[in-house]
Design brief:
Elements (H helix, E strand, L loop, with lengths): L19 H27 L6 H8 L3 H7 L3 H25 L4 H15 L3 H16 L4 H25 L8 H21 L6 H16 L9
């Protein structure tokens, strides 16, 4: 047990022996989730280089020992956070598409999701941290690149399938489209954070919608905000 009091010399009744490992796994998974949540906040707030293991552990309610019992290093939890972020984003899009039957409605929903979803500043900052980490730590670049490509490839394939269903084709590679959409979103959100009066939330949504339409040629499907 990493986060609680270790039980010693405890004899489990025969009927409970099989359930003990399951409880241990649940405690371990709960600890890792809390550490990941804390790491997301600390990395977004302080950046990778300035973030400290002690701060992550403390915010999660654990000690350094509990951190290192679950993750080998700050870099290790950083990559685990990227994996978690990728899976969460893909799950959100998959759930969104399941709500709409026709490809046209799915494309409209994707556009709306892209324009309105660009409000999570923490994810934007994390995305930029991933990029900066790759630039500043060339040795880990290949590992980061392979994981980020999973998100971009999946997002690109999804866009290509939806567009093909409505009789359209991507003007460039699906990977380039996915990266361009993400890059433009990050830049606008960064400008919004720097000066919210110069680039308002409404400006961000409107410009993202225009960019989505320009890249995907979906003007006829444009909804009103």
């Amino acid at each position: 047990m990493r986060a609680g009091v270790r039980e010693k010399n405890v004899r489990w009744p025969a009927a409970e022996k099989g359930s003990a490992p399951s409880r241990q796994r649940m405690r371990t998974e709960a600890t890792r989730r809390r550490l990941l949540t804390a790491a997301e906040r600390v990395f977004a707030r302080d950046g990778f280089d300035a973030a400290r293991v002690e701060d992550i552990a403390s915010l999660a309610g654990y000690t350094r020992g509990a951190f290192y019992a679950n993750y080998h290093s700050k870099e290790d939890i950083f990559f685990a956070l990227l994996e978690h972020w990728v899976q969460r984003r893909l799950a959100e899009v998959a759930a969104l598409l399941e709500k709409h039957a026709s490809p046209a409605a799915q494309l409209r929903a994707l556009r709306n999701h892209y324009a309105r979803g660009a409000k999570d500043r923490r994810l934007m900052l994390l995305s930029l941290e991933f990029k900066l980490f790759a630039i500043r730590h060339p040795g880990a670049h290949a590992r980061l690149r392979s994981r980020e490509r999973l998100l971009r490839a999946s997002a690109g394939d999804l866009l290509r399938r939806v567009l093909a269903a409505v009789g359209r084709r991507l003007p460039v590679s699906s990977s380039a489209v996915a990266r361009a959409l993400g890059a433009f979103s990050n830049v606008l959100l960064l400008e919004n954070l720097a000066d919210s009066k110069a680039v308002t939330d409404s400006d961000v949504r409107h410009l993202l919608g225009i960019f989505f339409d320009a890249v995907l040629g979906s003007q006829v499907l444009r909804p009103r905000f």
